[in-house]
Amino acid sequence: MTDEPLLRVSALSKFYGSRVGCDNVSFDLWPGEVLAVVGESGSGKTTLLNCLSTRLLPSSGTASYRMRDGQFRELYRMSEAERRFLMRTDWGFVHQNPADGLRMTVSAGANVGERLMAVGDRHYGKIRATAVDWLSRVEIEQDRIDDEPRAFSGGMRQRLQIARNLVTGPRLVFMDEPTGGLDVSVQARLLDLLRGLVTDLGLAAIVVTHDLAVARLLSQRMMVMKDGRVVESGLTDRVLDDPRAPYTQLLVSSILQV
Amino acid sequence: MTDIATYNFAYLDEQTKRMIRRAILKGIAIPGYQVPFASREMPMPYGWGTGGVQVTASIIGPDDVLKVIDQGADDTTNAVSIRAFFKKVANVAVTTDTASATIIQTRHRIPEHPLTAGQVLVYQVPIPEPLRFLEPRETETRKMHALEEYGLMHVKLYEDIAKHGRIATTYAYPVKVEGRYVMDPSPTPKFDNPKMHRSPALQLFGAGREKRIYAVPPFTDVVSLDFEDHPFEVQTFDQPCALCAAENVYLDEVILDDHGGHMFVCSDTDHCEKRREEGHRGHLAPEIHLASEKMEPAQ
């Protein structure tokens, strides 16, 4: 670990015409740190995530990423080829809907192996061995390796998507509602798995979620967004236990108690 | 033959030929790159070689000798019709002899007789995009070509091995041209892929419906994609041609009766006939030497 951040975001804004997507967002993300972005739907958290992962270009502001050679590169000044290369090697993106992040018509093994082949791996046996290894790490039985994700349950698809993203050993993973649409017991297992992987691999992650419980379990730090602006940020425990902004207080007090 | 004046030479108007020649030149300059072109309506349906015919029409001159093959054969409908078409609209000499042809338009085979410098092989291509069945968006496949993102092509080969234990793709086997563009060699059997590598002949590909032209200039590297532990290999046949006893050629299965009788014969009819004229006999070759004698009407 160095004393330099992995990602520096400064005054990032995205406008859709006159509408605000996200406005003047700044933060640093450190290696191995999990940052949760919470807020109600329409608060701009997905826009922010898409801008950071260069799937969208922001209207203004900068984001620089510390490459593996230690040099900071400004994301929006990179060529498309460089950005796409970053996306499939040093980054991961876990979609809320696994169908968006998986190739549904090729086998689970090929889904995991695709990134390896994309960076030039040309040894079938090794690719397959890596795929087997990753499937077991995300608790998918090995005999499902040649099945298509179409034949998988929602929870398995999500785990497969995670394996597919982590196979190249990324340093930064973006997650958009990774547990959305899963029932609670499956959610719990997935969160447990994610927490284990993030700690074991020392991943940095930006997790967008509307579920404060997910944020509390996964993240060390969180940002609360409302109407495209960050209304509060700080250590997760502090924000959840002692919310200061009125909106955060409302959000925290809206959690259903069982 | 007498009404040739009613057509422009080689059917297409001169402006169209210039447009197609520009696309061909660009294709040659960027080996394996698919150049869009304004494909014309031809007097034949899509899928019958409209792309190949337009390329041939644009490059053919009065002194050219044209050969047309369809799955290796000179005597099938498609081959006969296209040959007759150019005889009519360009008044060129036609042949079935591979060595004496200057332009060979082909559907899905490369002749067995080695091609030489100065010859042009024109392929008819149904679907020029090798990534099409993996990625349906044209915008995306173009970007993948531009950025040289070809991992997906190997995903297909991976799937083959996972499902069948080997690379089961037998035709339209993807190749990398000059270390840069991944190209569909048109649905030729992969048996023919090695013949494309550093071929002395110019290879042009025309896809009429998809409106793309691409090219492999002479002596260009054409490498079939594979895995280190599953290297590319061509089909092998465990018996020679039943008519001319040729080995190491591509064979077609011909059904003889409805009791399971079949034989394997050269798909390249010109090659097979030449060998039989030279006296090579397969185990099912007819006794009479020349086919024409045998076919003498009985009346």
From TrEMBL, chain A:
The gene is phnK. Residues 7-252 form the ABC transporter domain. This is Phosphonate C-P lyase system protein PhnK. Keywords: ATP-binding, Lyase, Nucleotide-binding. InterPro entries: AAA+_ATPase (IPR003593), ABC_transporter-like_ATP-bd (IPR003439), ABC_transporter-like_CS (IPR017871), P-loop_NTPase (IPR027417), PhnK (IPR012700). GO terms for molecular function: ATP binding; ATP hydrolysis activity; lyase activity. Transmembrane segments: none annotated. GO terms for biological process: organic phosphonate catabolic process. It comes from Mesorhizobium japonicum.
UniProtKB/TrEMBL annotation, chain B:
Keywords: 4Fe-4S, Iron, Iron-sulfur, Lyase, Metal-binding, S-adenosyl-L-methionine. It is an enzyme of class 4 (lyase). This is Alpha-D-ribose 1-methylphosphonate 5-phosphate C-P lyase. It catalyses: alpha-D-ribose 1-methylphosphonate 5-phosphate + AH2 + S-adenosyl-L-methionine = alpha-D-ribose 1,2-cyclic phosphate 5-phosphate + methane + 5'-deoxyadenosine + L-methionine + A + H(+). Belongs to the PhnJ family. Catalyzes the breakage of the C-P bond in alpha-D-ribose 1-methylphosphonate 5-phosphate (PRPn) forming alpha-D-ribose. Residues 277-299 are annotated as: Disordered. InterPro entries: PhnJ. Its EC number is 4.7.1.1. It holds the Pfam family PhnJ. It comes from the Bacteria.
